[in-house]
Amino acid sequence: MMKKEKCTKYEGLFTFANEEEFLRHVESCEDCKAEHEKMMKVSALIQEVAPQLRQKRRDFVRLKLACASFGIVFCLLTLGVINMNPDVHDMLFYGETMTVEDYGFPVDSYGLIMVD
Predict the structure, then answer these.
(1) Taking the CB of residue 22, how many other CB atoms lie within 10 A of it?
(2) Which tens digit of pLDDT belongs to each residue from 34-66?
(3) Residues 24, 9: Cα–Cα separation, whole Å
């Protein structure tokens, strides 16, 4: 008994033939009909999960925006604190807090500016 060879036209017809010719072949060929049913099931599954995938992508974009916004606000606040507080600025740049004497003003033994 000779085994029937499987039809391999499905992919070519699906890709290159017009819809009418493709459906006519699918109706007449059992191998292609089975392949078409599998493809339709996969298509239905993709259509079913498409909204969840879109929502997941939107949530990821929102998360990236939130992280970027947090980073920008954090940097701006940090720079603001450093620039508004001279002690923090001096500690970061010079390793110690600058005093009046370090600026070259004459000071007494208590660290106060001497006035003549």
Answers:
(1) 19
(2) 989 999 999 999 999 999 999 999 999 999 999
(3) 12
Q: Under a CB-based contact definition with an 8 Å cutoff, are residues 98 and 86 in contact?
A: yes
**C-alpha pair distances (Å), 36 with each of 1, 6, 8, 44:** 28, 14, 12, 12
pLDDT > 70? residue 94: yes
Contacts of 81 (CB under 8 A, 6+ apart): 88
Residue tagged 């003003």 (tokens): 105
**pTM score of the predicted model:** 0.46
Roughly how many angstroms between the first and final C-alpha of the chain, as a whole number? 123
- The sign of the CA dihedral 108, 110, 113, 116 is negative
Give the number of residues written for the chain: 116
Q: Which tokens go with 90?
A: 């001096």
State both tokens at 39: 């493809």
